[in-house]
Amino acid sequence: MNSEGEWILQMDALFIAHQAQLRRAAFKILRNWDQADDVVHDAYLKIRECSDNKVEVKQPIAYLFRIVRNMAIDQYRRYIFELDLFDNEEEGLLVPDKLRTPEAYLMHYQDLNLVMKALNKLPDRTRRVFELYRIEGYTQRMIAEELQISVSLVNILIHTAIRHCKEALSSRS
Question: How far is it, in rounded angstroms, from Cα 171 to Cα 173?
């Protein structure tokens, strides 16, 4: 196998092994999981396209993270530019937004408080697993490794936390 083929296989393996971390790195910049997924996918395609250049990479993992980070920053800048560009358009400004009424804010605020109180009543490990999964974007396997517990226990704890939150929300009515 030639060095180009080996390089592509190495990059493929690194992308697979570090996909969740690359996704989180993009998410930290973009604050949107779908956009983070797009950036990671585009970074993968860019690496594959650049395989013809035979660039020698001494630290391939750092190289991948740098590409994802740069592409996420570029996408964020493009998003801000487009916001500024279309900010002054008057189309749609007079349409009432039913999702942003004071009543809707109050309802969401109350729901959020109920969920926060419910999470605070959970055991520390259960709450931590839920936060890592739902807020930090960790996979169940990553949580299991970090907390040194089984993946099946992680799954049970996530479902326990979700059920607890749903019960708290259903008791409000």
Answer: 6
Nearest residue to 76 via CA among 126, 30, 117: 30
* Secondary structure (DSSP) of 113-146: HHHHHHHHHS-HHHHHHHHHHHTS---HHHHHHH
Give the number of other CB atoms < 10 A from CB of residue 30. Answer: 20
Q: Taking the complete model, does pTM exceed 0.70, yes or no?
A: no
Whose tokens are 């929300």? That residue is 169
User: What is the crossing angle of helices 60-86 and 3-30, to 10°?
Assistant: 40
Among 21, 13, 10, smallest CA distance to 142 is for 21
pLDDT in tens, 1-11: 456 778 788 88
**Single-letter amino acid, residue 79:** Y
